[in-house]
Specification:
Layout (H helix, E strand, L loop, with lengths): L9 H6 L11 E7 L5 E6 L20 E2 L9 E2 L22 E3 L4 E6 L20 E7 L26 E8 L12 H9 L14 E6 L9 E9 L17 E10 L5 H8 L16 H9 L16 H4 L15 E2 L8
Length: 342
Amino acid sequence: MLLIRDTGLGGLLLALGLSTVNAHSWVEQLTVIAPNGTFVGAPGYPRGNVQRTVAGFSDVEMTYLIPPDGRANQSQILPTDKMCKDTQELYNQTEGNPRLQASPGAAIALRFQENGHVTLPQTQPGKPPNRGTVYVYGTTEPKADEKFLDIHRVWNRDGTGGDRRGVLLSEQNFDDGRCYQINSGNISEHRQVEFPHVADQTMGADLWCQQDIALPANAPSGKPYTLYWVWDWPTAPHVTAALPNGKQEIYTTCIDVDVVENADLTHTYVKAGAAGYVEDQSLDRAAIPSQFAEIMDTRPAPSGSSESVPSSTASTSASPEPATKTTFLTIYKTIYPSSTPV
């Protein structure tokens, strides 16, 4: 699927090395969020990250699809399907793309491009109205050959699911309610007015989507904490003749965060969660109000504590956007092959 970007900022986009054709999505960057909802500190990047500004960049270098293209039954997810792309199976940071550093309990924004999936929904018939659901799972015990079906919809928020190595940290709509690609679609044009963004060296002219999470407050310092980002984007049955049974379409990004106790005063303040969300700040470096309020309310308790950590002022004094998460039932058919799939 190719979508042409309609933008008068082509010169800037070309200078950034950005393609004028649409691609699928992955986590491009992570940033710590201060208690006022503002991004702070140096950003971090996924395993094996390749910047779009690299000469000859192609989205296949960062895209990982489950089930893979070429599988006869596009609704089959096999027990051998891995969680991570081959370039992201191990701790692997490319030059100039370091891991994010954050304190235990820190609020973090994972940002990704919508690439027309939100603003041009008519080009993708049969997709859910929320443009799919994004999940973030976390673990201190990652495996190099992590299997997708061992984690997705198995690990839960209290850590009792599956092999209990990890937890579900977040479940949100792919569409965060603000993000857009510059194009001539009605959604894009409306959001460009409602959520203005000045083109910059990071996002170009588009406003990226984000998923805001909190690291567990008891995440051990001095070692990486691994995040698995999963975008579940199914196609419904009987929408097109080519897909009478619909299909699964899932993309993942695998990420490590360096957990550093009291890395600096900013991170300590984030951990304390003692300030309120600033409503009129620049959208270029701001958390999504409804997601931020949610994570400040449900910040995981410190190790050994049975009490919930008190909510920050942000959750009581701010007026966040309504959280409108849509739930879809996805049925997985597990196939146990007699031989290794192609």
